[in-house]
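Good morning C.,

I know you're traveling, so I'll keep this short. The sequence:
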Amino acid sequence: MLPAPTPTSQNSLISAHSDTEAVLVWLAEYAQRPATLRSYRKEAERFLLWLNSRQQGLAEVKREDVHDYRRFLAHPHPAEQWIGPSVPRSHPQWRPLTGPLSASSIDHAFTILGGLYSYLNHAGHLNGNPFRLHKAPRQRRTVENGRFFDADCWAHICHTLQALPADSPRQVAHRERAIWAFSLLYYSGARRSEASTARMGDMHQKRGNWWWRVHGKTGTGDIPVSPPLLAALQRYRLHLGLSPLPASGEDTPLLCRLGDGRGAQQGISDKALYLLIKEILQRAAEQAPDAMRPTLQQASTHWLRHTAATHQLDAGISLLMVSQNLRHGSIQTTRRYLHSEDDARHAAMQSLPAITTDSPAKKSD
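The tokens, ready to paste straight into the viewer:
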């Protein structure tokens, strides 16, 4: 990120003398949340680069500039300056964007930038937040319209995993990793970022039971390792040539890249895990009945978390326990997955008597 001078209040709570320094202080607040840090850093850097191209600083941004930035993200120009392939930050072909952003991605970016301005305002570093002058009404997020897999759809996904080709060592490795990835995300309800950064040593025993210590978005928490998940872990470890159960402090990634014969296992990236899940879902969609195909085609990795919550509740696990397993900040968040509760409420309304059972009177001439 390029430095840009910005006025600093004498009453500022942070020691920052440029926009870049101020943003770095803000990002430091998320040092314990790697996935959030990556996302916030990307949006802040992109915005500072855009401001630098206009010779503006954070304190100079007006509401009109916010509208300009929205238009820019939807249609980045000049393309050769802003759009490039998905490569590491140090690569000479790296650019801030890989293409135009969707409306939802732009809204997400604006939420992050609004948070940045809010933080710097509270710190006394800035005065005003052009991203918060107008806030769209918050819509309740729901999962009813296909953001989880029902029993039939989940059975079809499991069949697809079992039927993956295994005619070569690489195909076998791909099949075993895919089965483990789906098992891990489904039985734990973990987020993709939590799975991709986890190590085998995060699996540990406590009072005779196995637990997965997750370091994620909402901090550190323990998820119960059920017998099916433990069996899937043992199967994957034996495939990798490891002992059936992990040792304390073992640094092997919980999800590994396909073996390349170069020794120590390397972990799979967050994006690679996303692409792996999408590939299997696409395979499932190709062989699915017509009614099931749209669900599989639009599904993403996060649907496994929704499915985990829904299936746990349907199995009779208490709302409180499921909320703890998913590490939700509020039990009301978990309640969204309690579809049986909605069905029961609807069924209960059927018992109300009709006001009248008479046939409608005919209109007289």
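Safe travels,
E.
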